[in-house]
Amino acid sequence: MHDVEFHRLHQGPDLLLLANAWDAGSARLIESLGARAVATTSAGVAWANGYPDGDALPVERLIAMVAAIARVIAIPLTVDVEGGYSRDPASVGETVGAVVGAGAVGINIEDGNAPPDLLAAKIEQAKKAAAKRGVNLFVNARIDVYLRALVAEPERVAETLSRARRYRDAGADGIFVPKVIDRAEIREIASSVPLPLNVLAWPGLPPASELAPLGVRRLSAGSAIASSAWGRTAAVASAFLASGASEPLSEGAMAFAQSNGLFAPRA
Description:
The chain has about 270 residues and is of the alpha/beta class. The chain has helices spanning about 1-10, 25-30, 40-50, 60-70, 90-100, 115-130, 155-170, 185-190, 210-215, 225-245, 255-260, and strands at about 15-20, 40, 75-80, 105-110, 140, 175, 195-200, 215-220.
């Protein structure tokens, strides 16, 4: 079962690296490169569907994307559901149930600027909805204390730990603290909460080889790969629009047969 496998991947000893995808094609490509699981980036998914990041994506688009990814990969899938697309915990539970029904075995769900008790209630509903479908959902609770500068710097660790304990008690299986980069702070957070710690690739973050000894279990690329793809597309397309030259279009491109072959029926 993919849910069992996904929980196991957080138990070590190796750091779980997640190169976040934004559609079925990117997910299948990432799987083919040796990924042990696929995670989505909410920003990349929103952009691919013509929406801004930030709970603006229609839920039906999210569900369709999850189903499309699950159809083409054979490894665990975890989905960034942002804030759950609602402030009503019951509604969030329904959405998460549909995400699980479409093939996900994990979610990221964030607190943002909302009170921690609201995310705790959402986590409880998410776990119940998944359990009704027979899935032990891995809920990765994103704590935005660092990312959104919710408190003064000297208070960041204490506030993060307070929220992490609240989310653990609500049923969270892991915590995600984007933008924490200080080694001592990472170590303190990881050692103080008995849940796997997920950090985000960020300028100044210690090398991946140093994160596991600090207590980190999971490292996510977030929206960085999608942003890089957008940047590369902009560069290639703008050059073509300016000159119409054919040759630069093939520079760094994956061969058609290789790309197309990713979607051949599995043996």
